[in-house]
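Quick one, tokens below. Sequence please?
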């Protein structure tokens, strides 16, 4: 719960970010939720209701849902600048808020309750606990959201077969997409296929095997790759810190982007150029 210290956020903002207008925040906490644990958590998040946050009109909501044998607690910022979001888990609150623009699905079993509920969705996230069934994933998802209008798709599920990824992408008018996030480890061949399909990509989040770093980086950053000409931001997730130096050296030796920024944050490597 390191990031749930509201007083630390207040001191940071007052000391270094006096002109901050938007505080867009989401934090997930997985727990067994014994009574003492839940009391500590709720006392912590209640600190975000102080006068400091109210004066700036920075408001928060929290939601609980169960995933298999544990519980997920989510604290997230709300209006005026965050589109409403709905999380579909094993046990859900009966929410009918409209419009919901972002749907996060943790469980396929819970989807039946939400047929035709989310007609305004433009962003979809499938989490690691999402079980891909033998039935058509496209047909199942289309029952609750209109896939053709999605502009952002995040696949945070490592057991998602790549052929079903392609089936899902082919069902969406996704060739205009500028952002794709895939947490499953991908090979160069898979990356090449995705970039060929979505030549308007600007922001790309991937996971890879370290042995493939050089070939994938050269492919994505090449000035002669017409399909990736719009790409300006790359995130490589679930990596070790030493990868940052390997990538920096590769870029400088190969003279890939002329001007770039590279950072390592919370096991994710970020590259902007």
């Amino acid at each position: 719960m390191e990031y749930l210290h509201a007083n630390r956020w207040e001191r940071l903002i007052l000391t270094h970010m006096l002109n901050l207008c938007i505080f867009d925040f989401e934090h997930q906490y997985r727990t067994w939720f014994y009574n003492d644990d839940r009391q500590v958590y709720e006392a912590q998040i209640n600190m975000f209701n102080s006068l400091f946050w109210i004066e700036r009109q920075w408001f928060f909501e929290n939601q609980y849902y169960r995933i298999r044998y544990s519980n997920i607690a989510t604290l997230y910022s709300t209006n005026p600048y965050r589109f409403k979001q709905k999380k579909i888990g094993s046990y859900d609150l009966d929410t009918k808020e409209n419009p919901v623009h972002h749907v996060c699905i943790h469980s396929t079993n819970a989807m039946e309750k939400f047929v035709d509920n989310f007609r305004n969705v433009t962003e979809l996230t499938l989490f690691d606990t999402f079980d891909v069934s033998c039935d058509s994933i496209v047909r199942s998802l289309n029952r609750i959201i209109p896939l053709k209008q999605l502009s952002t798709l995040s696949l945070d599920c490592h057991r998602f077969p790549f052929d079903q990824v392609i089936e899902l992408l082919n069902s969406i008018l996704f060739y205009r997409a500028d952002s794709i996030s895939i947490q499953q480890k991908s090979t160069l061949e898979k990356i090449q296929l995705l970039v060929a399909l979505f030549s308007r990509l600007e922001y790309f989040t991937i996971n890879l095997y370290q042995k493939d770093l050089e070939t994938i980086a050269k492919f994505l950053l090449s000035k002669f790759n017409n399909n990736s000409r719009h790409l300006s931001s790359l995130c490589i997730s679930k990596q070790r810190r030493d990868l940052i130096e390997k990538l920096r050296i590769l870029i400088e030796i190969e003279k890939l982007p002329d001007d770039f920024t590279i950072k390592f944050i919370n096991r994710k490597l970020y590259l902007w150029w």
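The chain has three domains: 1-61, 83-174, 175-273. Helices lie at 6-16, 35-46, 51-55, 137-142, 162-170, 188-197, 213-221, 243-254.
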